[in-house]
Amino acid sequence: QVQLVESGGGLVQAGGSLRLSCAASGSIFSINAMGWYRQVPGKQRELVAHIISGGSTNYADSVKGRFTIARDNAKNAVFLQMNSLKPEDTAVYYCNADLTYYRGGSTHREYDYWGQGTQVTVSS
Asked: Is pLDDT above 90 for 1?
């Protein structure tokens, strides 16, 4: 079994900062890409930031210049540094991974492995 465990969410005032962490554990063979998505009630889950194994990143326009994604490949972890937070950043943030894992003596690829989510609330 593979698990993605997020941490670091919470309540912060507008203009403040938070750092989200996500660690993948279990029978992992490799991780091709990791990312962060967010979702508010009644809306679709949206991409926040994404990073591939080579280090290339992409960001939603709404967070460019404020959020930074980084990976620690040795620890199968991904981080999201969120600065200059705005009330509209309030959402549940989910860690996502495109990974290959071991099961039954062979490897299997899962393109969308999700964490359980962590709440980020930005007050005005």
From this structure: no
